[in-house]
Amino acid sequence: MSQWSQVQQLEIKFLEQVDQFYDDNFPMEIRHLLAQWIEGQDWEAASNNEAMATILLQNLLIQVDEQLERVSQEKNLLLIHNLKRIRKLLQGKYHGNPMHIAVIISNCLREERRILAAASMPVQGPLEKSLQNSVVSERQRNVEHKVSAIKNSAQMTDQDVKYLEDLQEEFDFRYKTIQSLEQSDKNSTLIKQEMLALQAMLNTLDYKRKEVLSKIGRVIHEIDMLMSNMLTEELLDWKRRQQIACIGGPLHGGLDQLQNCFTLLAESLFQVRRQLEKLDELLTRLTYDGDPIPVQRPQLLEKVNFLLYNLFRNSFVVERQPCMPTHPQRPMVLKTLIQFTVKLRLLIKLPELNYQIRVKATIDNNRRFVLCGTHVKAMNMDESANGSLSVEFRHLQPKEMKSSAGSKGNEGPHMVTEELHSISFETQVCLYGLTINLETSSLPVVMISNVSQLPNAWASIIWYNLSTNDPQNLSFFNNPPAATLSQLLEVLSWQFSSYVGRGLNSEQLSMLAEKLTGQVSYNDYQLSWAKFCKEHLPGKSFTFWVWLEAILDLIKKHILPLWIDGYVMGFVSKEKERILLKDKTPGTFLLRFSESNLGGITFTWVDQLENGDVTFHSVEPYNKGRLSALPFADILRDYKVIMADNVPENPLKYLYPDIPKDKAFGKHYSCQPHEVSKPSDGGGKGYVPSVFIPVSKILNDSTDPHSPSDLLPMSPSVYAVLREHLSPTVIETAVRCKLFHS
């Protein structure tokens, strides 16, 4: 079943998450129509290879053309129209930057895998539960309802101001008419009655002025209360959700809803401001003793301007945090002289501001780093798929100043990766006589000068965003707080779901907890930063985080399909694996990550001796060097072991608990095993076809020296001849492999 088919079977709450990251940058129609083709391409590799990305973009457009031809034959007018529009959009948007669409599609596929993994997890962690709190959802609905009510109130007040204007014009006309009469005419009974009517009209005018001012005051008060309480909380919640999403958590939505609220409030405030200007205009034409306009209007206008200043300042946000396109799963880690992207949005979307706001990007003022590249750009509504007022910097790169570079010789690797910096942005809004200076900053970033620093730098980003919602605590690592282990384990599971497509289950997390704490129970355990990332594991030359990062790298590069299918138990101790295997059928095996070797994976199987005793065998861990030579699924298929005087055989029969090996891994074999043939049946040009065959010898004497490798290049035909003419002892000498005997 394709990944897209699995996505379509998700519950509605997960489908809503999928819907959030498909837009005109990569339309869902294309994802649906070209599902299998898209999943068959290596978009992640193309995101770092312009030539490959160019070819993939061309092939994508060809695939769209083929779909167009198909739907044209079916005379599906709507789909024809949409596909033509999408093709034009894709070609225009990515013709000059094909790597950008490779990054987008790679990220979409990764997010799909993360959501599929989250859907398969039986229990949500504490952080994810807090982000989906029903109280938060209720507040979101209340905010939207109140904003709508405020907008309606402001529009109704417009009608009151218009009525007041019409009433005053009538009064003014009738009053001037009387004033134009001769003095003798003014003493007539009719004129006196008219004067009484005018006095009554003036009283009504006074009442209506007070009523309008009161209504304007109520609208301003409602906006003030909403901004001070619920809207501020909504914005802070969004920023917290963004922090969590940056370290692998659920996608953060809601920015479009916030934009709608901010825009409606800004429109309402400008509407109130125009109403106050209209009252000032009416004041210049008519005033009287006790007139409420000159007393109340200045205070109301000052309050409106104050609210507009605050609304604009809060609306300037970093929509997408700084990230190198080469490492989309590691945002906020920036390498010197490598480009990164960052996107900002103004949540107040007014047409008058399109291309009128120029944003300048700088780095924090320690004079150690400067930003190179285009660091001033105008915000516009054309580049974003949803038409938001935004700007994306795509060609910024940090550069270390020479004077600083020469003075850091005494800094260790931890000092480098625990030093936090900030990318700052500033602009100015000039609108309707108001000038408002805006500033915002990215979440803290870590600068590295070498890719080898990336793992520890990413650990710093994880720890910061897990531990605090303070967006600008650059001195955080002067005294980093401890983290609640249950929350940390949840974040570690996110590393696997976001980076390699499948999160960790409760048993795997329990093993990690025990490795970190040495305890089976870890409720409310507080783990220190040093324990996580700086202190070596007991008896090892590496830290917990370095060990875990090496496993992530191993999965990503060598065993990803097996991991996604759930066939790698991975995190299980030697003691636990023996408990799991001891009562199983001989030949039952499981796959686990090495605890002593960085980035190693091994398999252990259970066997039964002649006397009925159970024994276990664990092969020496395979690392990335060996797995680069031979796929792990093929190793499991072709693995042979020589025991005593028996002929070589594959001891691996069932993947724990009882899955036939070929059923579990068959679809991942690179090819079918070669039929054993004699040398005379050799391949082309007179050569015998050859393959790697992993062979091991179980030593009866544990003191026998172990050989350095468990792989031997040997063709099937040569192996057949050896079995015909040589004894098992001689074969054992030839293969020179080893296996740990437990």
TrEMBL record:
The keyword Transcription regulation applies. One of its GO terms (biological process) is type II interferon-mediated signaling pathway. It is found in: Cytoplasm; Nucleus. PROSITE patterns: SH2. Pfam families: SH2, STAT_alpha, STAT_bind, STAT_int, STAT_linker. Residues 563-665 form the SH2 domain. Keywords: Acetylation, Activator, ADP-ribosylation, Coiled coil, Cytoplasm, DNA-binding, Isopeptide bond, Methylation, Nucleus, Phosphoprotein, SH2 domain, Transcription, Transcription regulation, Ubl conjugation. Belongs to the transcription factor STAT family. This is Signal transducer and activator of transcription. It comes from Steatornis caripensis (Oilbird).
